[in-house]
Amino acid sequence: MTRPVFGRARPERTSGSPGSAVSHLDRDRALVEEARRDPARFDALYRRYLAQVYSYAFYELGDHHEAEDATERTFLAALANLGRFEERARPADGDGASTFRVWLFRIARNVVANQRRGRRRRPQAPIEAAASVADPFDVERGAAIRDEAAAAWRAVGRLPADRRRAVVLRFVEEMSTAEIAGVLGRSEGAVRVLIHRALRSVAGELRRTDRFRADGIRRDRGGDPGR
Amino acid sequence: MTAFERDGAEVEALLTDLYLESVLARIGTDHGPADARLDPLLRNASDRLRRDLVRVHPSFRFEERLAARLAELAAAMRMPAAAGGEGRVVPLRGAAGAPLDDAFDPFGEDDPETERRELARPLIIGGALTSAISLAGAVYVAWRRAHPGRAASPMVRAARAVRTARLATTGRFD
Q: How far is A172 from chain B (nearest CA, A)?
């Protein structure tokens, strides 16, 4: 998968006109223009970003049905309001920049947050996601990997909302700091600090879990004296 | 937190960011100069998250169902211009066919999870209460005007008698 290079370099306004900051470099520009002319062409944008939006919703909501609902709302809102989208890619952002993706994820963020607010159920651990990285030919190792994946997800799930979102966008969606800043409406510096603090919390949580698991394995191998 | 500590945290956040850039771009095992300076705990957590937070894909059935819904919406969006029905409203419906929440703006700038949560319900209840009290007040004033009646209190009756007598004798009431 190619990594977007959006916002890795600082923008420079050399020409002096404010319009020069907005350029023609948005990766999705052609698709967006086609979709504006003919809404049926939105399908290409939909296919490109479906898995990303769905994945974000799934990590945020922890439930396939709710993630499907949020994904559906996001894309319907995006298509219905495509005329409101303003391209903001900068020359320094490079060829991989997509402000459409940032715009789409801003919608997804609001839809998901609205859904989280309205529901009563607690999010479940994404077992399927954890299972997908396990080795089907090595059951013991597979179980260990599943446990570790579930522990990582739990640690992320315990983070405050803004840190959790930043981590999911960084690790699952592989967004750059600039893109995350665009989605969350924060500065790049604030996003860096959010992720750094989130990693500190996750590291502490994972260390506790690992220690607990190691104690359990030692007890199993040596026999439980309490029995 | 002192300025020195804050600067230190920002530098560390920047180092973490550089490390993540290299990890997410999959640049081998040697992650460059940021690697050595970064806290091993953070490095380990980053590597774990990189490995364990995988992208989850929706089912093919869902993908096709939503594609069909989008095509339906796209057709409805194209229709007004073609048929001259510019005023037609295209209803957006949720997964179960239920209409989407009209009050919810997916383009809101605020963070709905933190800001709207506290405001929405008390605002509605407060508004309803205020309206009810205003209506009751207006009805009461109208009723009193229509039915002046006799006051029950002897003091009020005495005051009215004095006022009437003064008005009758002097024509003015000071």
A: 6
**Residue among A182, A156, A177 nearest B14 (CA):** A177
C-alpha B23/C-alpha A174 separation (Å) is 10
Find residues 85-104 of chain A whose CB sits inside 8 Å of chain B. none
Any bridge partners for residue B99, and if so which? Answer: B93
Which residue does chain A place closest to B50, by CA atoms? A171
Which residue reads 């508004």 in tokens? B127
Tokens of B57: 């894909």
Amino acid letter at A221? R
Conformational region of residue B149, where left means phi above 0, alpha means psi within -120 to 50, and beta covers everything else? left
Task: Give phi and psi for A23, each to the nearest 5.
Answer: -125, -160
Task: Give the global pTM.
Answer: 0.65
Is the pLDDT confidence value at A118 over 70? Answer: yes
A185, B111 in Cβ contact below 8 A? yes
Note whether B107 and A106 are within 8 A (CB).
yes
Please give the Cα distance from A156 to A163 (Å, whole number): 9
pLDDT tens-digit map of B115-128:
444 445 666 777 78
Tell me which residue of B105, B68, B85, B93 sits closest to A81, measured CA to CA: B105
pLDDT digits (tens, 9 = 90+) for B62-71: 999 999 999 9
Distance (Å, rounded) from C-alpha A73 to C-alpha A57?
11
Q: For residue B124, give the amino acid letter.
A: I
CA distance linking residue A186 with residue A198, whole number of Å: 16
Tokens representing residue B45 in the block: 């957590």
A206/A137 Cα distance (integer angstroms):
26
Across the interface, which of A69, A79, A117 has its CB nearest the CB of B113? A117
Contact A47, A217 (CB under 8 A): no
Top residue of B59, B65, B89, B104 to mutate, by most chain A CBs within 10 Å, is B104
Q: Which residue of B has its CA nearest to A192?
A: B13
CB A1 within 8 A of CB A174: yes
Q: Please calculate the CA angle B164-B168-B169 and round it to the nearest 5 degrees.
A: 120
